[in-house]
Amino acid sequence: METGQIKVIQGDITRLNVDAIVNAANSRLLGGGGVDGAIHRAAGPELLEACREIGGCPTGEARLTPGFRLPATHVIHTVGPVWNGGRYGEPQLLASCYTQSLNIARDNNFSSVAFPNISTGIYGYPKQQAAEIAISTVKNYLRDHNFSAEITFVCFDQENYAIYQALLNKVG
Ligand code: AR6
What we know:
By secondary structure, the chain is α/β, with parallel strands linked by helices. It has one domain: Leucine Aminopeptidase, subunit E, domain 1 (3-Layer(aba) Sandwich), CATH 3.40.220. The chain has five helices and seven strands; from the N terminus they run E-E-E-H-H-E-E-H-E-H-E-H. Helix 3 (90-107) runs parallel beside helix 4 (127-144) and helix 4 (127-144) crosses helix 5. The longest helix has 18 residues, at 90-107. The mean pLDDT is 96. The structure holds ligand AR6. Ligand AR6 binds at residues 12-14, 24-26, 32-36, 38, 80, 116-123, 154, 156-157, 160.
């Protein structure tokens, strides 16, 4: 499904042939479960080595590596907030993940970027609220920076996919 340059699909982000896929990492950048584990398995051990050299990433920030054995050329690693009820800056930190990832994409002239549903797995962010932040942050960024990359939201689970479809079908 497509809304201008933003589209949503259901599937495995490690399969996508884009300029960059975004990884929902942790602040050590040394791999983990969920989408992070899948990306490291598909990219091969060189990715862990590249992440080790970076030395970590604070919550809400993003870092770039090559994609190694992935079909995607690059991986943008960003660290989402752990959900603690919403009064610990979680919305701002989650928005910052999308903004900083897009800053990297823009600085590197990427024309296609795919995002997973950051923080909505192991980190427990409520899916509806996370999707609203993800979509509004990306839409505003593309508009405000006149950035015309194709953005794909890759939903792994049916619940997120339904939420994204409903939100992207709304006018505005
Ligand atoms: N492709 C796309 N999305 C996926 C895939 C995949 N292959 N696998 C899972 N998802 P999570 P978080 C979805 O838990 O909540 C790791 O251990 C999943 O359904 O991967 O940000 C890190 O190292 C969910 O919607 O990331 C951190 O310690 C979304 O990806 C911690 O988990 C995010 O779920 C980060 O937790």
